[in-house]
Amino acid sequence: MKPLTKKILISACLLGEPVRYDGKSISFTDRKIRYFQQQGYLVPVCPEVIGGLPIPREPAEIIKSVGGFSDQKVITKGGCDVTDAFQRGAKITLEIALQNNVMAALLKSNSPSCGNLQIYDGSFSNQLIDGSGITVTALKKAGIPVFNEMQVDLLCDFIERQD
């Protein structure tokens, strides 16, 4: 693989950092991602922690209001509104991406912050729906493509076309 001129934003949990809501990391290993890490091309982030949420923290899901995703709120399983923390984390994550000349992001699927194709439906019943997390929405609006851990090959194809 040729040297990159730009970096890749990545969910810190995918690199083994215990930042998930349950205080755990993800068991994710991919030789291409390890190569990028060894070369210093990855910028790890956890938007929820950056936004001020603790580790561990109560599970949270995006609740669709009557107005749809433009009026989305993020609520914990216990009913606390954590929307501000998620929005703050998304804003800071976007700033980090721009400061680090990021070309794309590899984020954790299904997360209310990082899900790029699907998120949980807000009922805390493990039901997925099509949609994007708060951070993904901010990154996409800024023109940064987002992939998940099951789309590493697509990310690599994208990178090959860019660099």
Automatic annotation (TrEMBL):
It comes from the Bacteria. It holds the Pfam family 2-thiour_desulf. This is DUF523 domain-containing protein. The lineage of its organism: Bacteria, Pseudomonadati, Pseudomonadota, Gammaproteobacteria, Oceanospirillales.
